[in-house]
Write a structure and sequence with these properties.
Largest sheet: 9 strands, mixed
Helix content: 25-40%
Pfam family, one: HET
Number of helices: 21
Strand content: 15-25%
Protein name: Heterokaryon incompatibility domain-containing protein
Radius of gyration: 28 Å
Organism: Xylaria hypoxylon
InterPro entries: HET, HetReg/Transcr_Mod
Structural class: alpha+beta
Strand order of the largest sheet: 5-4-2-1-6-3-7-9-10
Length: about 625
Amino acid sequence: MMSTIYRTLDVGQQEIRLLRLHPSKSFDDVIQCSLFYAFLDDLPEYEALSYVWGPLEFGQGISVNKEPFKITENLECALRHLRHATVDRIVWVDAICINQTDIAERNHQVTLMKKIYSRCTRDLAWLGPNPGSSRVEFGENGNQGDYDAVSNGCSKLLQNGMRVFRGMCQHDAETLDRMQRRWKTRRRAPAGGQNETPHWILSYDDQDALMYLFRQAPLWSRIWVMQELSCASRVRLIAGTETLDWEDVALFLGDDNKPYADAFHVTGGHQSLLGAVVSIFGLVQTIQQQRRIMKDVDEGKYESKLMDVLARFQYADARDPRDVIYGLLGLVSESHPIKVDYGKPARDLFTDTTKFFIDSKSNLDIICQNPWVVPRQVDEEGAEVLRSWVVEFTNDRRFALFEGGLESLLFAQRGIFSAGSSTCVVPCEVSQDGLLSTRGVILDTLGPVLQGDFQGLRLDRYPRKWMQLYFDKEQLDDGRSAVYTPTGEPLFRAFSRTLVMDCKSYPMQRLSPEDIEADEKIFRILAQSDTIEDSPQSELTSFYMFWRTLDNWVFAMSKTGLLLMVSKEAQEDDVLAILDGGKVPCLLRPFHEKDELRYRMIHSVYIHGYMDGKAATEVEQGQLQKQEFLLA
């Protein structure tokens, strides 16, 4: 079937196919379209479609060049809605315009994606309905009625969200008055004078609709869409018959409009109020940031780095794991060795990409401060698919960046710590069996990781619980506190600084002497009793670091008494190491294989007193010895 529709593209002339979507006055008529060929340097006006494929079930029949052609349910629904009544519509659609069965063609066309979307008159971002995706909600247990109910419910949310946003964006008096009454009721405030700063609280229904529109719709999970939306000069969001131009979203979130946008609030857990911009528009802001970057790149004002692009969009998903890299290459302007090759296994692509980051940066940030910390994939026999030093770029924690994740250690603030030397030897040495050779020092080994009974325990009770597990009361007594040798400060002060990794946020920065003194007093109150009625934790300068750190890390001690914050995967006898080119220490797990000592990279680790170059000083003084590490 496909061979009669497609002819070979002229690669040298950067030839592509475009789809002519023929009109119909009847919404229910069979979709009729035809393919034609054009060169990138001589294109007619066309639009490009961004959408979610959904389940790979090609059961929907359309006509292409007067021949039957099967597509997914989501695409069929989008084309049916986008079809004009009386005139053709020229669109670029990946599933039809690329011969998906031809790997060589796919490899080549993927390299043209940036140009295809940059040169279209408009990107049509199809948010829904997505009937195929709705089936995923039920698996094999649903029926058509269930699928239709989910699809219709999602469509209603999208269209309601567009109407609510339009009211906010256009300063609609009725919309704003309703939201302001909610604010005054919440604050129990009388009607203010003309000088009162306006605030607006979204209703739960409005909040849900906007959340689905700008964050939860399947479109936002697709890695390719991030590139498509970032490159297109104009974007139109489409939900059935409702549309919203990206320009309106950008203006709403723009710096000139910031006081207005920041005045909108949503209701969070325990009836707390949260800023709507961060809670709802965080993902859209990220895309808008990339759109600005692409403009600066085109004007020669900025170089877009591969690491920054991959980290920025790490929340997005891809059906093919290789696409988490291939799908974003069009956003990168720096020189790099990554070539689109669907014949290359994902493990080799991830290895090559990790090695490129090490060699291009001359450091181990990508390993020691890895922002893609996810459960490692294992094969049928339980063996890890990737070497422990290779980054697993796929991410099954969608939107963690906007929900308090960031389990990796301050990746976005790579200059805060300087535990190891600033550089490592490059090009890095990787053996034929995938071992990365590095150098560094071993500080100590991890002692028992005492968990205790933390089930149901509030976070502000954790410090006291850890004190009971690890210390005698006299060691932390206010008047007779033991001294923490690496820093020479009282042990309790060192303990309290360790719990927040010696940082405050936001923006992320180190604690000042005044911060340390003030927070120590509050930590002493938290340590005094298990039954504090009015917890002073919110008064901590380091409050946000406190709850974020304790939610993702655990306190522990080394065999010689070093104070640590470690990942939950840590085990007794893991090695505490500082590697050349690593700004933060790391936790390594030693094992013997082929008669040699090897190490698995487990996670970054906070070691109080050793985050600012102390290890290098001890090497110079002969207290520590540099050695080679083979990371498996």
